[in-house]
Amino acid sequence: MLDLGVPLGPVEAVRAVDRMRVDRRSVRPGALPLRRLGHDRILVRPALGYVFDVKLKAGARPLRVGHKGAAALEPENTLRSLARAVELGCDLVEFDVLELHDGTLVLAHSDDLLEVSHGAARGRVRGQTLAALREVAPDLPTLDEALEQLGRAGTIGIQVDLKGSGFEEGVATAIRRHGLIDRSVVSTFHVPSLLHLARVEPALARGLTYPVDRRGLSRRRILLPAAVGAAAALRRALPRRIAGLLERSRASAAMLHYSVVSRAAVARAHDHGAAVFVWTVDEEPLLERMLAAGVDAVITNDPRIFGSGD
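-> structure tokens emitted (310 positions)
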């Protein structure tokens, strides 16, 4: 639902459009007062104010996000894994999306068939048809199948992580077709993809992933020595850079690897009005460190790490 009378954060107001629906009435946009969270200055822009319903900020506790569903407990990026994350009480379920060459959108972390088939076959993913892929990866879901299942799962949030570019509009269209715009956030490290999403579906919340995971950090329990040094440098610089990164990408959330998270970076993101999600946290001592830093959401392969309390 649209609410034109409340402050907005850095998820900038939606660009002016010709017509829109508010409470079943068609209205034309005009100059609306917009207030950035944490700032007193009122900005007036000829644009629409849009409030994103998907919950990105922590309430009484940080949000619990299942990584690739519940990847420590079920095969990642499968309907079973998504269902397990819902069963374990996650606030959001994250999964990866890749486009096949024929335009089909599937849940896959990479173009590596060995990964997507969970060790059953080698080769590439994108050049194959869905039918061929399901010969070796029978549990491979399409984006539509995942959205249909999660759409029935109460009010759980959805984080769609793009593994590639050029199919942003297809993802946005699928999310809208399933009526899940207000429950979804799309994340990627690729800034042009976020800017494209802002144009084609400005009502969709967007998250900037940082840094680019070239070394497979999300899959390593212990960082490589070379990665440790690089992460330390990024961590020191991030408090100075994070506001600019969010502004340039028009993102409403920063999806940060735990190695670059600090209280200062989180505070700067919050000053900018943005939420901070941290990936991928699977151990309790690390979880405690991230909670102490003030993050809004924790992405984990094993949602049991949160325990059973509220």
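The chain has two domains: 1-51, 63-306.
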